[in-house]
């Protein structure tokens, strides 16, 4: 079996996903107990993360890349951001436009070739999107291109671990039907160090990352799957990144200076932020994160929620 490497484009013969059902949701996008119910369950904590990282969102130009029916866009626009929602599906864009009447502009297009000028946005958000994209390197380059220097890239995605396969793919999709079959392919899930490599190469620096997990422990998940019955759980951010994780990276600004004319702290070679995409157990002990590549240590995979 060939090694999966998400720092390279994945050829069509090596994955199998079907996202056409998103175009058929229509108003079911906004039914918390409908086919987008799992997205609703995750939406509160992840939008909360995005808004905390953005700070004062008022007047900021934000691209919601892969906006779907507008769940994330509504939270961003409600905080005062000026949101452009990009999606391939005209049907999804119509739903989003109805759901977010103010501070929202729909735009049709692909993330691999964003239809915007360079430096157009203060922030780009990719919520529940990256794990569906075969050509991840092209998307990262496009995100970096449309961000202004100092702009933020905010995302959530799914880690490529055995636990993610068991919970997100086998459990939530195939067994419980929380999401339609064919939505995910484990081969497109993204290890944190792969994404960090691409983002760093594109000129972005880590600000912080965190996990996103249900408020029930692994034992509760296993029992629910064994019974083939599990209510939609509440989600919360935390240290557990075995399945899903969120992140904030910032585009480097070569001209930026701290007060007094000094170079930005990271430019002076000081430690990277503790929240960087790092799966090593050292981070769990609260010690400073070492510079360099990420560590996919298996120790975290044996941890508990």
Structural descriptors:
305 residues, alpha/beta, Rossmann fold, 8 strands, globular, disordered C terminus
Q: Describe it for me?
A:
The chain is an alpha/beta fold. The chain has one domain (18-252, 272-302): Vaccinia Virus protein VP39 (Rossmann fold). It has helices at 21-24, 37-54, 71-78, 90-99, 136-146, 162-175, 192-201, 218-227, 281-284; strands at 61-65, 82-87, 104-108, 121-127, 147-158, 204-214, 235-238, 244-251. Strands 3-2-1-4-5-8-6-7 form an eight-stranded mixed beta sheet. Helix 5 links the parallel strand 4 and strand 5 (147-158). Helix 2 runs parallel beside helix 3 (71-78).
The largest pleated sheet is described as: 8 strands, mixed
Instruction: Tell me the CATH superfamily.
Output: Vaccinia Virus protein VP39
Give the CATH level 1 class.
Alpha Beta
Rg computed from alpha carbons, rounded to a whole number of angstroms: 19 Å
Order of helices and strands: HHEHEHEEHEHHEHEEH
Task: Identify the overall geometry.
Answer: globular
Strand content: 15-25%
pLDDT below 50 for ≥5 consecutive residues: which ranges?
Answer: 261-275, 280-305
**Strand order across the biggest sheet?**
3-2-1-4-5-8-6-7
Topology:
Blueprint: H1 21-24, H2 37-54, E1 61-65, H3 71-78, E2 82-87, H4 90-99, E3 104-108, E4 121-127, H5 136-146, E5 147-158, H6 162-175, H7 192-201, E6 204-214, H8 218-227, E7 235-238, E8 244-251, H9 281-284
Parallel strand pairs: 1-2, 1-4, 2-3, 4-5
Antiparallel strand pairs: 5-8, 6-7, 6-8
